[in-house]
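Quick review question:
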């Protein structure tokens, strides 16, 4: 052994956030990220797409989750020799940006924006998306998410916009873009329709709403009413028809007579036979019939507003009527329900808007004019109640959609919008989705598959300002045109194509020679982000080679809500343009909740600042928690969770590393020492190296197959085994004075394990792994190293099985000791175990259980009889523990030799006589002196023993 210290000293008292900042400084100084890119340039590309965040706000805790997974696979594939571009991107358009600017300006709504000026408003939108870029970069660097921000794509760039225009033109040329008058989810605050996937992102549970059963008086039958149900009373002024099921069974009922004396006519009600349970009181059935008999019956409108020019207010049949809820009679307001609009258009029933684009009742609805729809509900109910038209009212709690950005309750509203006919490629969408590898697998046919099976056409137009302008020009003669580039408009490629500049561009009509004007709408921002595989390259105008080499992506990941967002837009656009999916593998992550499983929200006060978590526990701790938690399920995150990660895993690993460095430096261990052949190493070393090789095989296989839990959890289990079995069992091998082959084997085995472990952990724990590897490997960065490969030669499945059985025998033996209330420090004579153990393992079992002899027999038996000799040895073991405690209290270094002083009565002289040598060896005492020097403070142990020590000279 050499005496030179090969490794930098490592304190067992580590503060991981400080360590991470030191590593970050080192990476910055050495430009390690750029070096890692250059190191693998020319390697086979591994492509991941960065789902572009919007940089007009600071990153939150939920951003840590996806970025941790992205970084994990970027690092892993880089270490496997692949070239991972790591191109950053920014989503810069849409409502998120507009709403932030509105807040800063103190304006709200489209009219105030237009009064302020679209040009200035959009200028501020452009500025705002740059505001927090530095925060995002710092955030990503702090959590070790390596991303190439210098080569980032921006969805606001003209090249990007023109790529999106090309995509729209390609879809247009297939005849799959159309303008339609449809009922769409609509945000009255933002004054724009939303797509179905945006709708799906804003649902809230347990929302209270009125539940009202309303009487509609039939004209032809005196005192007879159709009973209909609604949870949206604000739509009742817009009622134009009542729908029934032609083949459903209905009943005419009236309250049973209570005797003579009342001159009031008896009310008769019509509802589905299967829904009689909702009637209040004792009713008798006067007649049974099918819905066919109700068709074309006229009823009196509830309100006199906006009388239609065509026939309305009569009973129609509709295929959407059921008896699952309500009354079997459906209130139909053509302008506020997709089914309502369809059936009314089919039957020529007029469509009346009683609500304006701000979500307020129109002036013609005099009693409620100007009221916001939700505010009008109680007033409408009260009006109907006063007129005796409310049969029953209550409150329900249900799931309701809100604007995914501003939080306003959405309404369903009929208006003109532009659509991409995704239903025309539904089968392709389903097939392409099935071709992708989803993790968890159930998402493929579950959450994502169900969504695609019920696919509706994509509403792509937004009546807003800051976004990719729709490249559609229309002439008054009806001619329509879609352009694919600035060049087609006679503009330079670098022209700012945003509103209001693009609005001023007119085109000559090829049909009539007139002037075509651009449709004033902008594009759904999800179309922007879903176009990033090609638009980030400027394709097809530029970057054709780069696009071909990076499409489709090998891997993407985001949270589960993106099945209705980015996952869908990528799939839909890629299917429409290229007839294939944009990604091969996708990890669908859960949402982050607090330690108690509660959704994080400002109202609950449980939102966590990710940078504070990094500064308190370290980014590696946060990352590791996500990697070992079930993928796809909600992730609990909080101080308690992260404290457990640090204590149970990171500190366990660090203590093993610190232990190795401490003793390796004491003994001058050199990794270049001639290697002890595997066959000549002790059984414990061979077992650890076998476990390590199997671990490498497992982690590599599972990461290759995107099974993060399958890779991370065995790593955690291995670190626990390494610390609490291998190192604990091997401590005396490192402590002993002589430098022999056994000691060298222990050093080489632990060194090899720690180096391999640092490389296995590098994608997961980039900071801690870097710190270990640089110290163990002469300053070399682990992120420039290769990922370990399993050799197979070290694997010994039989030995691993035998060691597992030996450890189980120890567990049973310790349980037997506990039942007999015998401390492990008290030696026992023997334990009998079923089966045979090789001598080396039997010795380990005996040492763990502190028994003199391990025997083989038919069943487990622990000999609990304690002889005088065993009793004295037990006292010696107690003495060793006391001396070790005193060493720590005295501030001695691990390697310090001591002189041990003992003064005792009773059994202690006999203990020292019999076991003084054992005590000296275990406590690094050069000599044991039976006296009590007055100058030593020492420690009293009970009434019979005093111990003292000093550093040996």
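Suggested answer, residue by residue:
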């Amino acid at each position: 052994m050499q005496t030179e210290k090969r490794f930098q000293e490592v304190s067992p008292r580590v503060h991981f956030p400080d360590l991470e900042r030191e590593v970050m400084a080192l990476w910055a100084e050495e430009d390690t990220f750029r070096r890692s890119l250059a190191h693998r340039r020319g390697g086979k590309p591994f492509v991941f797409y960065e789902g572009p965040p919007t940089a007009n706000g600071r990153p939150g805790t939920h951003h840590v989750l996806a970025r941790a997974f992205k970084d994990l696979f970027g690092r892993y594939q880089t270490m496997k020799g692949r070239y991972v571009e790591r191109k950053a991107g920014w989503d810069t358009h849409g409502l998120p940006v507009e709403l932030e600017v509105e807040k800063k300006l103190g304006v709200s709504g489209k009219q105030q924006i237009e009064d302020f000026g679209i040009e200035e408003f959009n200028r501020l939108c452009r500025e705002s998306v740059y505001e927090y870029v530095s925060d995002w970069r710092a955030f990503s660097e702090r959590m070790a998410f390596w991303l190439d921000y210098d080569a980032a794509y921006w969805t606001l760039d003209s090249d990007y916009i023109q790529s999106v225009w090309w995509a729209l033109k390609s879809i247009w040329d297939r005849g799959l873009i159309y303008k339609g008058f449809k009922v769409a989810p609509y945000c009255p605050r933002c004054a724009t329709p939303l797509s179905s996937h945006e709708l799906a992102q804003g649902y809230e549970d347990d929302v209270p709403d009125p539940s009202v059963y309303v009487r509609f008086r039939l004209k032809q039958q005196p005192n007879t009413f159709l009973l209909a149900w609604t949870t949206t009373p604000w739509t009742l002024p817009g009622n134009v028809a009542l729908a029934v099921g032609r083949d459903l069974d209905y009943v005419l009922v009236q309250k049973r007579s209570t005797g003579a004396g009342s001159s009031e006519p008896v009310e008769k009600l019509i509802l589905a036979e299967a829904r009689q349970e909702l009637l209040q009181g004792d009713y008798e059935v006067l007649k049974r019939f099918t819905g066919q008999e109700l068709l074309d019956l006229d009823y009196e409108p509830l309100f006199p507003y906006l009388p239609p020019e065509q026939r309305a207010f009569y009973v129609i049949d509709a295929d959407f009527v059921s008896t699952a809820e309500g009354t079997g009679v459906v209130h139909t307001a053509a302008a506020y329900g997709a089914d309502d609009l369809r059936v009314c258009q089919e039957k020529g029933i007029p469509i009346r808007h009683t609500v304006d684009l701000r979500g307020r009742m129109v002036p013609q609805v005099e009693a409620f004019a100007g009221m916001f729809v939700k505010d009008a509900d109680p007033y409408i109910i009260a009006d109907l109640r006063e007129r005796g038209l409310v049969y029953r009212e209550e409150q329900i709690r249900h799931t309701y959609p809100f604007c995914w950005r501003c939080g306003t309750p959405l309404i369903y509203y009929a208006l003109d919008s532009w659509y991409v006919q995704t239903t025309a490629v539904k089968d392709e969408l389903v097939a392409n989705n099935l071709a992708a590898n989803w993790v968890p697998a159930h998402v493929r046919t579950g959450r994502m598959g169900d969504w695609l099976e019920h696919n509706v056409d994509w509403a792509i137009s937004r009546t807003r300002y800051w976004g990719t302008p729709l490249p559609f020009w229309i002439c008054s003669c009806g001619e329509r045109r879609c352009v694919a580039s600035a060049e087609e408009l006679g503009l330079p490629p670098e022209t700012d194509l945003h509103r209001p500049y693009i609005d001023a561009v007119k085109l000559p009509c090829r049909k009539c020679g007139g002037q075509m004007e651009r449709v004033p709408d902008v594009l759904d921002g999800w179309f922007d982000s879903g176009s990033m595989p090609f638009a980030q390259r400027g394709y097809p105008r530029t970057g054709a080679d780069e696009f071909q080499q990076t499409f489709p992506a090998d891997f993407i990941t985001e949270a589960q809500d993106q099945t209705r967002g980015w996952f869908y837009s990528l799939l839909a656009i890629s299917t429409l343009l290229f007839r294939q999916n944009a990604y091969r593998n996708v990890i669908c992550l859960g949402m982050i909740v607090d330690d108690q499983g509660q959704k994080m929200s400002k109202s609950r006060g449980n939102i966590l600042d990710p940078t504070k978590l990094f500064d308190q526990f370290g980014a590696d701790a946060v990352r590791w928690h996500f990697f070992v938690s079930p993928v796809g399920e909600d992730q609990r995150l909080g101080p308690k969770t992260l404290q457990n990660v640090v204590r149970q895993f990171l500190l366990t690993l660090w203590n093993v590393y610190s232990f190795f460095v401490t003793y390796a430096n004491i003994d001058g261990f050199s990794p270049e020492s001639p290697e002890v052949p595997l066959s000549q190493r002790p059984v414990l070393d061979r077992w650890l190296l076998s476990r390590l090789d199997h671990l490498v095989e497992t982690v590599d296989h599972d990461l290759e197959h995107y099974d993060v839990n399958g890779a991370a959890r065995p790593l955690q289990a291995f670190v626990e085994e390494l610390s609490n079995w291998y190192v604990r069992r091997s401590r005396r091998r490192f402590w002993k004075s002589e430098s022999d082959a056994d000691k060298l084997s222990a050093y080489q085995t632990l060194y090899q394990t720690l180096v391999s472990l640092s490389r296995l952990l590098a994608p997961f724990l980039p900071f801690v792994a870097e710190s270990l590897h640089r110290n163990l490997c002469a300053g070399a960065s682990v992120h420039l190293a290769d990922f370990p490969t399993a050799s197979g030669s070290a694997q010994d499945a039989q030995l691993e099985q035998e060691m597992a059985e030996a450890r189980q025998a120890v567990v049973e033996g310790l349980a037997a000791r506990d039942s007999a209330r015998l401390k492990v420090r008290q030696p026992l004579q023997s334990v009998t175990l079923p089966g045979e153990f090789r001598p080396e393992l039997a010795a380990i079992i005996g040492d763990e259980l502190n028994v003199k002899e391990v025997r083989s027999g038919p069943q487990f038996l622990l000999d609990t009889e304690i002889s005088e000799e065993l009793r004295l040895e037990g006292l010696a073991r107690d003495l060793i523990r006391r001396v070790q405690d005193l060493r720590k209290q005295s501030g001695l270094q691990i390697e310090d030799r001591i002189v041990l002083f003992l003064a005792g009565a009773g059994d202690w002289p006999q203990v020292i006589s019999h076991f003084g040598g054992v005590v000296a060896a275990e406590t690094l005492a050069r000599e044991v002196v039976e006296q009590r020097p007055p100058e030593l403070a020492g420690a009293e142990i009970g009434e019979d023993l005093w111990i003292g020590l000093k550093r040996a000279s």
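Why it works: Residues 158 and 301 are 54 Å apart (CA to CA). The first helix runs from residue 16 to 30.
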